[in-house]
Amino acid sequence: MEIEHNSRLTSVEISQIWNAYMTNSASVCVLNYFFNCVEDERIKEVVQYGLQLSESHIEQLKVIFNKESYPIPIGFRLNEDVDINAPSLYSETYFLNYIRDMASIGMNTYSASMGITARADVYEYFSTSFSKTNKLHQMAKDLMLEKGLYIRAPYINAPSAAEYIKKQSFLTGWFGERRTLTGMEISSLYANIQRNVLGTATIVGYSQVAQMKEAKEYMKRGIEIAAKHIEVFGSILNEEHLPTPMSWDSEVTDNTSFVFSDKLMMFQTTALISASLGYFGIALAGSLRRDISTHYTRLAAEIMKYAEDGANIMIDNGWLEQPPKASNRRELSDR
Fold it and tell me: Counting Cβ atoms within 10 Å, is residue 12 exposed (0-12), middle (13-18) or buried (19+)?
């Protein structure tokens, strides 16, 4: 039980709930649009649950902000950042896969937030959010399995016995005979291809409906980067005669009318990059073959530059909202 000290929100706590508010306000716009487009009743149930979840998160976060007299973020708004009556930009199967993937990212974010949060009300928010997002993920995954849309990761055979590594050649990658991939390496490579495949479909759609040339060009560049990552990771799996995930590009319609604001699409794209960097870090820690770890390091640097360029576009257009930051003591003392 927490002893009440009238504790203020720490820098960690305010940053985490601020990020949660921004993400959920974007999700409310996206899922309202999905809900208006989808016709399959089973998929509609999943979209509706996700939408209700994001809306409830927004209300819970507002309570915490108001309790602290902290300004509520601007975020994203239905009357500005989405046309929920626009023709569908994606197929219904894309909606389902998108929700499954976003729920997976959400669970990772909420579990990390729980690990660094102390105040009872904030911890309870993240704990409850994790549980409900887990339910959303399961709903989407189970329906994908039922519809034959869920693509399982590659299988590997069991060894005849447990044993220790005996030679440093286990780490060899660029020179000498390369060992076969470990299960952890296969898992990371396959999952990162999956995320890039879905990300490619997402920004292909964004590139079609973006209003500003600068935003369109940014999305096209992202498509090229994702294709490169898919090729690199896929080539490593192909060497072992292991399957790679299918493309989702065919799930994008030919709609070119306004759907999402450029501000929202740029935010969503940079959020996907941020998630990718986190997954790259996990993959790097679990990849002992030198060639694989070098690929992750090199590709991470590439998407960090892409993210920086995206942030600059958002700043230039007044779209990048100021996150919580420390007081400038030098500026205060000069007043």
Answer: middle
**Beta bridge partners of residue 260, listed in sequence order:** 82
Written as six digits, the tokens of 138 are 């399961």
pTM for the model stands at: 0.90
* Full domain range(s) for residue 298: 175-316
The reply to whether 112 falls in a domain is: yes
- How far is Cα 201 from Cα 142, in angstroms, rounded to an integer? 22
Inter-residue contact 278 to 219 (CB < 8 Å): no
How buried is residue 294: exposed, middle or buried, by Cβ count under 10 Å (0-12/13-18/19+)?
middle
* Domain membership flag for residue 3: no
Please count the structural domains in the chain.
2
Residues 6+ away with beta carbon under 8 Å from 303 = 225, 273, 276, 277, 280
Per the domain annotation, does 164 fall within a domain? no
Helix intervals (H) in 210-260: 213-239
CATH number for the domain spanning 280: value is 1.20.1260.10
Span between the terminal Cα atoms of the chain, in Å:
43
Query: Which two structure tokens, joined as six digits, stand for 201?
Result: 């479909």
* pLDDT tens-place values along the chain, 335 residues long: 445 555 789 999 999 999 999 999 999 999 999 999 999 999 999 999 999 999 999 999 999 999 999 999 999 999 999 999 999 999 999 999 999 999 999 999 999 999 999 999 999 999 999 999 999 999 999 999 999 988 888 888 888 888 887 766 666 655 556 778 888 999 999 999 999 999 999 999 999 999 999 999 999 999 999 999 999 999 999 998 998 888 888 999 999 999 999 999 999 999 999 989 888 989 888 888 888 999 999 999 999 999 999 999 999 999 999 988 776 667 666 66
Calpha distance 13→113 (Å, rounded): 8
Q: Which residues of 78-113 are buried (b: 16+ CB within 10 A; e: fewer)?
A: eeebbbeebebbbbbbbbbbbbbbbbbbbbbbbeeb
Residues in the chain, total = 335
